[in-house]
């Protein structure tokens, strides 16, 4: 079996060129995005920039459901979703793009269905495959990378691809009532390997509202990055504690001995 659908990706690369070509906003889009166009320094130009942007969201689970939803409704023009899982009943306390009727269905298909219903104007491309050393660079291409995964091994592969292609990596992670997020930019911030040394995989406890909070922070960072607005969450890790309802910040520094971002 072909582990990676190159033909599909080529077809979608073509879609992107079309998007680039016709990224002027239609009357219908001006209406759809009216309330965000009112934000200072956003305007039609910012919305056109969103429309011409390409992102890849790794993971269509708890974090992915939220990030994907808010990037799609904001009008990010081309969204690639990677996930090789099927919807399971035990996902439904937090993975809000999936429903009871989707159990057994590929998460990427379930996610695409809801996202296209939320915003038919964005192009959704799906890859129902695991991330490995052999495919990660093709999967990422030149897209902004959103880490909505739940295992460190695959997160670190995204990190490698981000460093190699000089692309930002929007990181989020959750555990129970706690979560964290940071925006990693090669050459300007630490990389993910600088931050994580051990292994953080396996089934973790989580209440659905936590990926809700963290996924929204990641989506906000992506939108700010594309529009060039505000201060990014760079060189700092935002930690959320839902039980005590507090946010705190940890300053981040590059690990000078990091094997990945030397
Ligand atoms: Zn590093």
What's the SSE blueprint?
Blueprint: H1 6-21, H2 27-32, H3 34-37, H4 43-51, E1 54-58, H5 62-74, E2 78-82, H6 107-118, E3 123-127, H7 136-140, E4 144-147, H8 152-165, E5 169-175, E6 178-184, H9 192-195, H10 209-227, E7 236-241, E8 246-251
Parallel strand pairs: 1-2, 1-4, 2-3, 4-5
Antiparallel strand pairs: 5-6, 6-7, 7-8
Helix pairs in contact: 5-6, 5-10
Bound molecules: zinc ion.
Question: If you had to describe this structure to a student in words, what would you say it looks like?
Answer:
The termini are far apart. The protein has one domain (about 5-250): 3-Layer(aba) Sandwich (Rossmann fold), CATH 3.40.50. It is built from ten helices and eight strands. With about 260 residues, it is an alpha/beta fold. Helix content is about 40%, strand content about 15%. Helix 5 packs parallel to helix 6 (about 105-120) and helix 5 (about 60-75) packs parallel to helix 10. The longest helix is centred in the last third of the chain and has 19 residues, at about 210-225. It has an eight-stranded mixed β-sheet with strand order 3-2-1-4-5-6-7-8, sandwiched between helices. Bound molecules: zinc ion.
């Amino acid at each position: 079996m072909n582990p990676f659908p190159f033909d599909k990706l080529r077809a979608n690369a073509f879609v992107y060129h079309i998007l680039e070509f016709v990224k002027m906003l239609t009357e219908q889009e001006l209406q759809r995005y009216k309330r965000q166009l009112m934000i200072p320094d956003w305007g039609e130009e910012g919305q056109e920039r969103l429309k011409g942007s390409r992102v890849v969201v790794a993971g269509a689970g708890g974090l992915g459901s939220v990030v994907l939803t808010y990037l799609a409704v904001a009008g990010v023009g081309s969204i690639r979703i990677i996930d090789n899982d099927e919807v399971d009943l035990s996902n439904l306390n937090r993975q809000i793009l999936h429903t009871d009727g989707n159990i057994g269905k590929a998460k990427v298909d379930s996610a695409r269905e809801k996202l296209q219903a939320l915003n038919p104007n964005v192009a959704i491309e799906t890859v129902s495959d695991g991330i490995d050393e052999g495919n990660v660079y093709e999967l990422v291409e030149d897209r902004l990378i959103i880490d909505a995964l739940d295992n460190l091994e695959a997160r670190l592969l995204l990190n490698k691809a981000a460093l190699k292609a000089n692309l930002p990596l929007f990181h989020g992670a959750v555990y129970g009532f706690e979560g964290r997020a940071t925006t990693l930019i090669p050459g300007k911030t630490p990389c993910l390997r600088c931050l994580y040394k051990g292994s953080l995989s396996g089934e973790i406890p989580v209440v659905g509202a936590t990926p809700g909070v963290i996924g929204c922070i990641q989506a906000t960072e992506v939108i700010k990055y594309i529009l060039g607005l505000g201060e990014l969450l760079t060189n700092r890790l935002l930690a959320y504690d839902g039980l005590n309802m507090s946010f705190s910040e940890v300053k981040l520094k590059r690990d000078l001995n990091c094997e990945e971002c030397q």
